[in-house]
TrEMBL record:
InterPro entries: AAA+_ATPase, ABC_transporter-like_ATP-bd, ABC_transporter-like_CS, ABC_transpr_CbiO/EcfA_su, ECF_ABC_transporter_ATP-bd, P-loop_NTPase. Residues 4-245 form the ABC transporter domain. This is ABC transporter ATP-binding protein. Keywords: ATP-binding, Cell membrane, Membrane, Nucleotide-binding, Translocase, Transport. It is found in: Cell membrane. SMART domains: AAA. It comes from Peptacetobacter hominis. One of its GO terms (molecular function) is ATP binding. It is a peripheral membrane protein.
Amino acid sequence: MSVIELKDISYRYPLEKEDTIKNVSCKFEAGKVYGLIGENGSGKTTICNIIRGFIPSFYKGELRGEVLLKDKKLEEYDYEDLASIIGYSFQNPFTQISGVKETVYEEIAYGLENLGVPREEIIKRVEELLDLFKLRELAQKNPYELSGGQKQRVALAAVVALDPEIIIMDEPTSQLDPKSTADIFEIIDILKKQKKVVILVEHKIDLVAQYCDSIIFMHDGECKLSGTAREVLTNPKVLEMGGQLPQVTLYFLERIKRGEKFDMIPLNVKEAYSILKGEE
Ligand SMILES: Nc1ncnc2c1ncn2[C@@H]1O[C@H](COP(=O)(O)OP(=O)(O)OP(=O)(O)O)[C@@H](O)[C@H]1O
Ligand SMILES: [Mg+2]
């Protein structure tokens, strides 16, 4: 059963003449990671804001179609219910920091305090998250004095702290080095095992191929391709529409173009290795 479903969604921002999102339909299930990909301006963040109800309530504009959250229309939920079900980490981590807390520790605890969670429980939860997000050394620092990448990790920890069923991450690794990026993907894997719906907007396509179960490929406001990571990320149409494919996949597509045949197109080095080994 899907947790969220978009049914033929179209959306026009206020004062715009054309729809930014055009007839998008897709479903999201628990325990799966969804990669929302596509070039700049293709509508990924707009889709995120539709899923979390910020469109149309905050951005206004004209939304057509239907968003179902657990079989109930999204507009039937009040804002507080939505905020407890859907966690959202912003594309820009600078906008996420609350600005009212003086330490990383308090920043992560902030949302839990607002929900009235008992003190002992808050401490337990924050301690876990400091370890999970490798933030222990930064715990007493002011969130505003952190680097972009450190802010991004704090922002994400604050979202995960609230234990929402659905976690939307809009480019969570944009400011992170490769090591911290790998750490975030490990956390994404943990969230998946906890049966969350994870919606990930991400440009690092090799990691998307490795960690995402399903892919939604956006182009000019339309969902042009969707399906399993293998279905979408081995499809050369993605390239024609300005998207990216994993490096190994590109290499195999090139060989196929030159007339070679393979039973499977690999998405990662490990798969490529076993295909080539089988050839010997
Ligand atoms: N508040 C707004 N009012 C009008 N148009 C907007 C607004 N926000 C975004 N847009 C337009 O909607 C389109 C989709 O933008 P969106 O931010 O959803 O793209 P994106 O795929 O997230 O891009 P990026 O990869 O750069 O983050 C763009 O053409 C953008 O200019
Ligand atoms: Mg965006």
